[in-house]
Design brief:
The chain contains 16 helices and two strands. With 400 residues, it is mainly α. The chain folds into two domains: 3-195, Clc chloride channel (Orthogonal Bundle); 213-398, Clc chloride channel (Orthogonal Bundle), CATH 1.10.3080.10. Helix 6 (138-155) packs antiparallel against helix 7 (158-167), helix 9 crosses helix 13 (316-334) and helix 12 (295-308) runs antiparallel to helix 13.
């Protein structure tokens, strides 16, 4: 690589990390704000969910038909099947996700963050700036750089974000050509996000566990449980999208009728407990508040329905909530500290559903403490093996 273009890549990564970090702060803080509004006026807002669904569908039909593919388009570009991601994807996915959360849909935010980062970085890097950047694998490098920055800017887990972007496109292969730029952009975005005071979830787990044979046995059992639940989520999401699409081909009818169903379920099932990100379940899991034995299952089902009928948002934060709440239930059965089991669930259900291994382990260290890395590694190894390459990302490729 020419020195000039090597420096160009470094400068590009710094700038793109900073810009994406600011965008993620805007997206994340607005999402927190609309969540507060929903909690305050829930009884009124939830009944408008079906009508908001029609508005979201109109936005995609009128202005962003190609953008409708979401993460599928990101993966298609990463695999060289598509050449361009329209910039209009960014405002459309941000607004539609805010609307989904404001009116009570059960969804996440990670997919949106990755789409924002990947779209902007790829557009700028393969556009007028390409003459300052290395030519080899430029499309993939700029895409992965933006994906890492988007994830890090929202969650402030830069090392986990780097590994997620490197490993998620093709299972079994790390896209190491993007390592330098992804690292620079990820840490920059995370720093900007922290500097601008975007809320970050972290919980230091104080439990110190000695690695014994009984503990390894428990980690294997709990890893199997989390792996199967992650597979259940990804399998259920894929099948639900296909089934609902065949049952109700008209997209407006589908999101309106589905919105009515989701609104009713959200109200009837503990009056909004399963709306939004699931941050309430995550907090309850680590703060000793009430967790019901069925919390993880209802959050799983409502998130699948919300996304399958056409509402927008990611899957990762709901997966964190599903895993943490299930961990609370499994902890006393297996004789594990509750916060340890919840932390394992937090990362392992996410890893199983996304078919990633390295990123969840490191995210666990960044969020809960690096002293638990051996525990996360063993449990995640088992969970990863139990998902049988099922992923929430339909266009994720498997290296044969």
């Amino acid at each position: 690589m020419e020195k000039k273009k090597w420096f160009g890549l470094i400068l590009f990564s710094l700038v793109i990390g900073a810009v994406i970090g600011v965008l993620e702060v805007i997206f994340g803080k607005t999402l927190l704000l609309v969540t507060e509004w929903r909690l305050t006026y829930f009884s009124y807002l939830i009944f408008f969910l079906p009508f908001v669904g029609l508005l979201i569908e109109f936005l995609y039909t009128k202005f962003g038909e190609k953008s409708r593919q979401g993460m599928g388009l990101i993966f298609a570009v990463g695999h060289g099947e598509e050449n361009e991601i329209p910039l209009r994807l960014i405002p459309i996915v941000m607004v539609s996700t805010w609307l989904t959360h404001l009116f009570g849909g059960s969804a996440g935010r990670e997919g949106v963050a990755v789409q924002i980062g990947g779209t902007l970085s790829h557009k700028l890097g393969t556009g007028k700036l390409r003459k300052y950047l290395p030519e080899e694998n430029l499309s993939q490098i700029t895409l992965i750089t933006g994906m890492a920055a988007g994830f890090a800017g929202l969650f402030q887990t830069p090392m986990g974000a780097i590994l997620f972007a490197l490993e998620v496109l093709v299972v079994g292969k790390l896209q190491m050509t993007a390592l330098l730029s992804a690292t620079i952009a990820s840490f920059t975005a995370s720093f900007i996000s922290s500097f601008l005071e975007l809320e970050k979830f972290s919980f230091f787990v104080e439990s110190q566990l000695e690695m014994t044979l009984p503990l390894i046995g428990k980690l294997i059992v709990i890893g199997i449980a989390f792996g199967l639940v992650g597979r259940l989520f990804s399998f259920g999401l894929a099948k639900s999208k296909a089934w609902i699409g065949e049952l109700i081909p008209n997209q407006y009818t589908r999101i309106f009728l589905g919105g009515i169903l989701v609104a009713i379920l959200i109200v009837v099932l503990h009056h909004g407990r399963y709306a939004g990100l699931g941050s309430n379940l995550i907090s309850a899991s680590f703060e000793g508040n009430s967790i019901y034995t069925y919390d993880f299952l209802l959050k799983l089902l409502l998130t699948i329905i919300t996304l399958a009928i056409g509402f927008q948002g990611g899957e990762v934060t709901p997966l964190f909530a599903i895993g943490a709440s299930l961990g609370v239930i499994l902890a006393p059965i297996l004789g594990l500290p509750i916060e340890v089991a919840a932390a394992i669930g937090y990362i392992a259900v996410f890893g199983s559903a996304t078919n990633t291994f390295l990123a969840p382990v490191i995210i666990g260290g960044e969020v809960f403490g690096y002293h638990l890395l051996p525990v996360f590694f063993i449990a995640m190894s088992v969970a990863y093996s139990c998902n049988f390459n099922q992923s929430i990302y339909g266009k994720q490729k498997i290296l044969k």
